[in-house]
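Quick one: structure for this chain?
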Amino acid sequence: MEKFKIIGGTHLRGKVTVSGSKNAVLPIIAATIIHPAVYKLSNVPEIDDVKIMLKIMRKMGAEIKKVRKNVFEINTKKISSYEPDYKLVRNIRASVLFIGPLLARFGKVKIAQPGGCFIGSRPLTTHFTAFEKLGVSIEEEGGYYILSAKRMKTNKKVVLGEISVTATENILMAASKINFTKIRLAASEPHVEDLCNFLIKIGVTIEGINTHNLKVYGNRNFKSYIEHRIIPDQIEAGTLAIAAAVSRGNVEINDFISDHNDILLNKFEEIGINFEARDKKLFIKPSTVLKAVNIRTDIYPGFPTDLQAPMAVLLTQAEGTSEINETMFESRFGYMQELKKMGADVVISGVHHALVTGSVPLYGTKISSFDLRAGATLIIASLIAEGESEIDNIHLIDRGYENIEKKLNSLGAKIERVIH
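Got it. Here's what it folds into:
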């Protein structure tokens, strides 16, 4: 097992570049199954979730070559299996994204219940109800879901039961070979847009991108070679911005897409963060007095649930009491018990509501990550804490952040990865 040792009290300074988007690359990797061809993907973050997805692809018959750092070539011509590896699927929530493309290619799928971080209930009801509207039959047998459709229905309107990112992506991919499908209550996150742009490159026509109403005109005459560059990671960009701001740093963040983080920058203005956004860059400058604000997570373009935890660290340094309403998941406040160990004044008043009062000093101690975003949060807290902190379960952080300690160390942080 590995852990981080972090010596706090650092003001971050320098330049850093945002990696490719975890949430964009995972569905796009799965989407290469739809049509047997060669796909060259660049700006691929080399994180654990990507490694697991590629392992699953290889086991199904894909040929994958690393061209150079962050660039991979995926040849899906020899994929013959519609059953992703059981153990690997159980290790990653994103494996649910194989259902849509496997249905599109083979008309059937046998897949285990996907795994991943425990941040609350994430049932597949929305996915399955939508697939049934396309004529897919679904059975549960021996720990597997078995989905099949000899020919999916065309000219169908699929109204999702909720605005779900992965359900939207799954139906988009499943519909890629159907003449026409209308998707209502579709998600509109930047990574959904990136998947849409990838599908357009392979030959699908999609209307209504960036809205909750998509029209998909499928195709069966796809291209044989496709190149695509993954967009920068919206959540990593926000995490780095929060780390720079809370450390009273002076940092230039490259590949920061302001349009993807409008609500975060609005909150920065309310809090009193000194920043400037221009030309795909964000400049964080030292700030003085920070003010308390209220945070309410919501579907995009609302405040992202994945930045709620990192934002709480910033609020511990703001004058007054801030209110956090977590509307998406019921187990997202686990990290607050760890912040309490560090001296934070936080009160959890329900599974969806918490109060953070500042400004208070944080102190280094032994803490543990409970999920991916909580891990990044504890790194940020340790950067500003007095003394040394130790963070366990950092394998969860490696699932979604590429070389996070190297990036922060390049800005002056003192983070060491050790084996224990």
